[in-house]
Amino acid sequence: MTSSPSSGSPTARGSPLTRLVKRLSRKLSPANSHENLAVLAHLNNHHDEPAELIHCSSTTGSNITFDPHKYHSIKRLGKGNYGHVDLVESNGYKFALKEQKTKRSGFTGEVDLYVKVSKAGDHKNITKLYYASSSRHKMGIIAIEYCEGVCLDILHGSLNEMQIRHIVRETLSGIAFLHSLSIVHRDIKPDNIMITKTGEVKLIDLGMADDMSIHVVDDPCGSPLYMAPEHINCIDHPHPYDAKVDIWALGITCIELATGYIPHSEIKRTEKLVMAVTLGGPPTLSLMQREHKHPLFFDESFHDFITSCLTKSPQDRPSAQSLLEHQFLKPATDQRELNSLIDLVTRKMDEKR
Ligand SMILES: Nc1ncnc2c1ncn2[C@@H]1O[C@H](COP(=O)(O)OP(=O)(O)OP(=O)(O)O)[C@@H](O)[C@H]1O
Ligand SMILES: [Mg+2]
Prior knowledge:
There is one protein chain. By secondary structure, this protein is of the alpha+beta class. The chain has two domains: 136 residues, Phosphorylase Kinase, domain 1 (2-Layer Sandwich); 204 residues, Transferase(Phosphotransferase) domain 1 (Transferase(Phosphotransferase), domain 1), CATH 1.10.510.10. The protein contains eleven helices and twelve strands. A hairpin with a 3-residue loop joins strand 3 and strand 4. Helix 4 packs antiparallel against helix 6 and helix 6 packs antiparallel against helix 9. The chain binds adenosine-5'-triphosphate and magnesium ion (MG). The site of adenosine-5'-triphosphate (ATP) has 20 residues, from strand 3, strand 5 and strand 7. Adenosine-5'-triphosphate binds next to strand 3, strand 5 and strand 7.
């Protein structure tokens, strides 16, 4: 294998091997599995007809509704390998509309997972779903809560420990909620975490996620540099893993937020990366700081939090729920630090305009 772990978007789904494995492993849930959804569902079993799921205002507790027949685009927010995300307006409200034009087996999966999260009552750290439509031909759209802010990848290396604590606590809370629903995100990284101009932290992109209550996860979907040893090993040998892969990815994310560098990013060949992650010692914050001459002092509890996340054995790696009790996350968010974080987000948004 000669693929690169970080070429273009560092996501493994794009490789032919991954696509093949993904196609084989992802089983679409049957249309009638939506029967009890707390959403207004116009479902049918015709193969060519779209399955439409439209939120009732009563389930979201607000009047915010998205009208799929009446909306206009304001600007493009992002473009991925399989589709794009636009800022749109409908009924006077703004939404992020993720549209999948090309065929890809995972998209109906993303719709189903957003619906599952929605049915469970939503979570403050996961973007809310307002409308979803997917066809059995794997094309569709989802309208989700628009986050007016920036992705963390443009803030990495410019955050202090207290700001990172706020971001990590909120992200981990979103991850714990997903795990409580048997959903593994599989693409936790700064690009998939947004911070709004009011300081809210939101996990986005369930494009790589999967429902462990439906089937065993054993495929290498995700971004190689953030993959846990048991996850990246699936590139060569599919093998069941669980939600703990998100905890490893969070540990790598912490190092990146603190130093601006991702461990092993200098390794260009995937097979070398697999060896480094599976056979080598886990990355640590001190090692990365030494390697990149990063001068900031970080508290021992932050080093320990990262070390816990980057425990090589998934059995010994703590769960999201137990990590929420970690010493590093004990101090409450400092309002002054939150304000300076908000200033930073606003500055970055202005620069992007
Ligand atoms: N709810 C949202 N609010 C604001 N911007 C968003 C939102 N969702 C996504 N975006 C923007 O669009 C970009 C792409 O979104 P997302 O991560 O969901 O897609 P992707 O990485 O292309 O997806 P996939 O990996 O499923 O192909 C994000 O990096 C972000 O800049
Ligand atoms: Mg993404």
